[in-house]
Amino acid sequence: xxxxxxxxxxxxxxxxxxxxxxxxxxxxxxxxxxxxxxxxxxxxxxxxxxxxxxxxxxxxxxxxxxxxxxxxxxxxxxxxxxxxxxxxxxxxxxxxxxxxxxxxxxxxxxxxxxxxxxxxxxxxxxxxxxxxxxxxxxxxxxxxxxxxxxxxxxxxxxxxxxxxxxxxxxxxxxxxxxxxxxxxxxxxxxxxxxxxxxxxxxxxxxxxxxxxxxxxxxxxxxxxxxxxxxxxxxxxxxxxxxxxxxxxxxxxxxxxxxxxxxxxxxxxxxxxxxxxxxxxxxxxxxxxxxxxxxxxxxxxxxxxxxxxxxxxxxxxxxxxxxxxxxxxxxxxxxxxxxxxxxxxxxxxxxxxxxxxxxxxxxxxxxxxxxxxxxxxxxxxxxxxxxxxxxxxxxxxxxxxxxxxxxxxxxxxxxxxxxxxxxxxxxxxxxxxxxxxxxxxxxxxxxxxxxxxxxxxxxxxxxxxxxxxxxxxxxxxxxxxxxxxxxxxxxxxxxxxxxxxxxxxxxxxxxxxxxxxxxxxxxxxxxxxxxxxxxxxxxxxxxxxxxxxxxxxxxxxxxxxxxxxxxxxxxxxxxxxxxxxxxxxxxxxxxxxxxxxxxxxxxxxxxxxxxxxxxxxxxxxxxxxxxxxxxxxxxxxxxxxxxxxxxxxxxxxxxxxxxxxxxxxxxxxxxxxxxxxxxx
Length: 679
Fold this sequence. Notes:
The chain contains 27 helices and 16 strands. The chain is an alpha+beta fold. Among the domains are: 124-218 and 422-500, no CATH class; 502-676, no CATH class. A hairpin with a 4-residue loop joins strand 1 and strand 2.
């Protein structure tokens, strides 16, 4: 009979337009308890007399400790209850049961003509292959050096170890398969990294580390079909367990704020839990019904306030402590703002409910579930769980910049990224989780005593090792994500281009202690002396196109950050004539099939390696403010290639010496060695 009454609750709400209440309010959420209290409201006196039922309902270790005398003086201290309750003239009613509470060379064999043309366009395919192999060799060395990487990406590490057994065309597809398999398991593999023996001192002294592992693990509950309200409860329980550990005395203020926020998220979620077995939270209709009655709404927020007060949730801001209740006091008259937060949350929970109902309906009908069915549920479930951690910000904007929720949010984002197949974002989030752990465990020795930290000499070393790992692997794991995300061959080539040396790499030499790189420049020169004035354009002109390739060295004392850098550049080849031809060639040749359409004309020509050989030496200033421009001066010998005309005919002269200035875009191809300058 009681079950039938519960099933009739929504109908009763619609018929009466007033908030319904559970037959057993102590086993309900704040939402239903508020509706229950409303029935005692005297519309004439505009108060609620404190009866025995109300005494037992409030003094239940949820709002107030058992046995606490519930009276007007006590309840008036609650900003939402103030003026609503009156002391009784008579007590009555029976006892009610207690309530309950509810988760990434062969240059010598290269055809010289193709090589020269491709470099003029920045790189030919084979040259990129050579650079790619060099990149993967460095990738392999990194994998061998860091056991952390082998744990996070086991199949990738195995493929890298067998790299030389693949020909180039086979290599990338094989690696891509390994990348994909590893990314599917990265949330499981991530926790293994933080559990390595070298990081045990962090595990034993910093609650941030076990918290990160727990949050990542708990996200898997959603995959197994758990509702987000259960995941919120489990995260709260994991955080509560960490609070009970001896090393909690080492927790930073930020982590303590995280603990308070997680506890509030659980209280907030359970305050809106539904009595309907198939639902986690109340419906939008039920919430709207509560908002239609100011008294019931105030009662709800009063109950929520009492729970927070009993838990004594405290925040540490700017060296000061402040309770969450003190912030709630300031918002007691801003019911519209608070109601809006509740409405947004319930709107999210409805998406969760609909997705669960759709899955249940398909299963009942024998319909095979598609991956998108699960992906949709996981997405909306994580959104709902994550929202509970943001509600606390409505009480004080100083929490807007709270960076200590990163571990929880990145764990949510990581899992969501994998199930929405956003792999670049997934590996970035995975690395950010580790990075955040390192940031939260960095040297805080000033706040420790010998009695509160185990292995004080080792923990800083472990933190530094974690930082080194994150710093070294970040570009490689982003490359892994880019390759798996790639939808076409062009996308994969773009990922390789970015990984080999990304756009913006000209700034590296401006922030270095020593840098040696394969370097090119693309721009214009001004010649002040030419030893062969009979040579044709692209070598003898006063002005012309400049396209050298060679080695660049920047010492640390000539690396000035925002003020630029000075480098010594030794050219080996010069593709100026080829670039000049590509800029001058006729772009408007009619096609044979349609005279109205035009296409670029490209003529066949052959170039020998010796014809572009052009040794030289220049002093080069790289502009500051991260501008990818350089100004250089020096001498150059050669090249034999002087000109390519519109017919594709090449002109070769005897090489000569030329002194010139140049202004060009700085285009590093490949860093051979670099030491980053740190503050």
